[in-house]
Amino acid sequence: MDNFVDTMVKKSQRLSKKEFQAVFQSARAFPFEHFIVKYKPSAHPFSRFGVSCGLKVSKKAVVRNRIRRILYHMFQTHQGNMQKGDYIVIVKPVILVADPSEIQPLFLSALSNIYEANTRYTH
User: Fold this and answer.
1) What is the pTM of this model?
2) Does residue 35 contact residue 90 with C-beta atoms inside 8 Å?
3) Residue 2's closest CA among 79, 100, 105?
4) Does pLDDT of 23 surpass 70?
5) Contact 27, 90 (CB under 8 A)
6) Are 97 and 19 in contact (CB under 8 A)?
7) pLDDT for residue 6 is more than 60
8) What one-character-per-residue DSSP string does 15-79 give?
């Protein structure tokens, strides 16, 4: 799991500040134990991603950035399995007690829940 440090999501697949705020305001929220995922369908041909990891999670920027890198790596790895749209992950402080290997199944579970909820409303 330590090879995630070398990978980063392309700038075109990350939300800009303006886009982040727009998605944050109008997206549907899916709360989970370690994070909240906000999802908004998009007309883009690919999914875009943003992470909010505030000072409540950790006062140390090194810790917050590591969490962001882990989540960006998971997004990049599983982007093909995701429903097209804009995603924001809002990290909760409880994520610090989780091992990075525990975060991936939680992330995948969150994606499947979002997919199921959106297929339920579109059909």
Assistant:
1) 0.83
2) yes
3) 100
4) yes
5) no
6) no
7) no
8) --HHHHHHHHHHSEEEE-SSEEEEEE--SSSS-EEEEE--TTT-S-HHHHHHHHHHHHHHHHHHG
From edge to edge, which strands make up the β-sheet containing 48-52?
28-31, 35-40, 86-91, 48-52
The Cα angle at residue 89 between residues 104 and 103, in degrees rounded to 5: 15
Q: Give the span between the Cα atoms of 79 and 60, in whole angstroms.
A: 29
What CA–CA distance (Å, rounded) separates 123 from 113? 16
Q: 33-81 pLDDT, tens per residue?
A: 899 999 998 888 888 899 999 999 999 999 999 999 889 888 888 888 7
Element (H, E) at 6: none
Model confidence pLDDT, tens digit, residues 79-105? 887 888 899 999 999 999 888 788 888
- At position 106, the amino acid (one-letter code) is L
Cα-based distances in Å from 79 to 52, 57, 98, 112: 19, 25, 23, 12
DSSP assigned state of 81:
G
Q: How many residues in the chain?
A: 123
